[in-house]
Each structure stands twice: as C-alpha cells, then as structure tokens.
Amino acid sequence: MSISLDDLSLLLDAAQLGSFSQAAAKRGWTQPQASQRIAQLETLLGAKLFNRHRRGAEPTAACLAYLPAARTALEALAEGRERMRVGEGLPKLKLASLPSLAGVIFGPLLRKLAAAPLEIHCDTDHSPQILQQVLSGALDIGFLLQRPSTGGIEQEVLGDAPIVAVAGASHPLADARGVTLAQIAAYPLAPQRWGEAAEDLVRRLRPLRQSASPIHLLQPAAAARDLALWHGYIAFVPRLAVREELSQGLLKELDLAEPELGRWRVVMAWRGGKRRDEAKGRVLEAARELAREWR
Fold first, then answer.
1. Fold of 5-86
2. Is this structure's pTM higher than 0.85?
3. How far apart are CA 251 and CA 254, in angstroms?
4. What is the CATH number of domain 92-295?
C-alpha cells in the first residue's frame, strides 16, 4: 500500500490541531475514519506518530521528524498545479537568432503568436553556434544567415535583403541623386559588419577620406542604425534591418551611384524529422507569414 496525499494532508492537520476529530471535520470525515487512516499510516511508516489521550492526540518525535517531508511533498504538488494554471504546462520552444536579426525577427514573430498556446524563449548567438544547437536539439528553431547545408537540418530562405546606405531624413545627402563613395567618405560612417564585403567597402572608403579619421565596423545592425538616426552618421546596413525606420521616414536610403554592395540572405533552420511537432509548426508558419510581409 502506498501513502496517499490525503493521508499526508490529514497528518499535517492532526499534528497542527492536536485532534483527530477536528482534522476529520475539515474534510467531512468521521473521527473513526481519521483514526483508521492515521493507524494505517503508522503501519506503513513503521513508527508511532501520535500519543492518543482524552484531550486529543500529541505528535511523537517520529511524527515531528516526518512532518517536513510531508509538507514538502504537498507544497511541491500545489506548486505544480499552480504552474499548470498560469501556463507552465504549455509547450515551450527555444529560438535563437543572430544579434542583428533579433529586432527584425523576435518582436514581430511574438506579436503574431501572442494568442498561440505555447511559450517561446528567445536568445542570440552566431550562425555556426545556432546550427550546432539546432542539430543537438538544444534549440528548436534558429534564424541566421544562410550557411552550407548540414545533414539533419532544414534551411528555408525567409528574405534576401540588399545592403544599403542610410542616413537621417535631414542629412545633407538624404535627397541627393547618384551619391558616390567619395561624397559619402566626407561624413561620419557606420558600416555594419555583415561579411567580407563590409571589409572591402571600408578599404575602398579609407583612401577617399580627407582626414585619417577611423571607420568602425559595428555589430549589431541596430548600433549602426542608431548612429544614423541620432548622430549624423551614414550607416551601411541590410535594408531589412531598417525597414520600419525607412517606412516611417525616419531614415532615408541614399541613391548610390555604386553597384549593389552586398546581400543579406536570412534563413530559418530546424531539425528535420518525420514526427510532426504542432508547436514548432506554428512558429515556422508565423515566420513564413512574416517573410511574406517583408516582400
């Protein structure tokens, strides 16, 4: 015979009240029923739990030693029920993205999934680490720049954004046509480090500057964006990373005389398998819907 939770609750009440009859009354039992349950518990535990007398029942030393464990068991059960009530029982998914993608992906994605019956934990990391964690199962879905195919991992392109030069709406070059790198080089610059092409761009810009002022490569894209928004810089960032600011007129994309500077191919990655995961499927579909809006 196993110890029931009702028996543990009865034990705590009897010890606190010093009376089997009062403990029985709390749960609508008779005093003989409570006495019988306590006697069975004593048999199971192999120890006398109460000294009975006319005025009630007094817990023994063995009972007092056992009470903390009984109380912990009941509290753990209550905590588990509460967690389920407030959502701890919902499916959980772990997502990760490149730092530069976090603002582009996480906020809009969570807005789309606000009413979905699942909980999402978001983090940032670099592309190789994200792929490794997806493969190991530590992450459910990763958002990164496209990498060579990896066995066991599905990759789906969400967006293919060109690298653009942007400046604040009041910048002297904001409305100019056919802007050259020589013109850009006269201003404070904030290129995001999006890849080897960013290094090449900096090497081309340095000889064009009239002074030996530095050009700092930045991560994430939000850092370069903010310098353009508030401090008069020209930033080189993926268009996708400044989509909202461009649509609101806070930033303007410069009309460059240069050919395309580079591209930012965003993919989502997840571990393939035959078994359908409904929660993961919801997130994947929400990400696809988000990608359609980008286009």
1. Arc Repressor Mutant, subunit A (1.10.10)
2. no
3. 9
4. 3.40.190.290
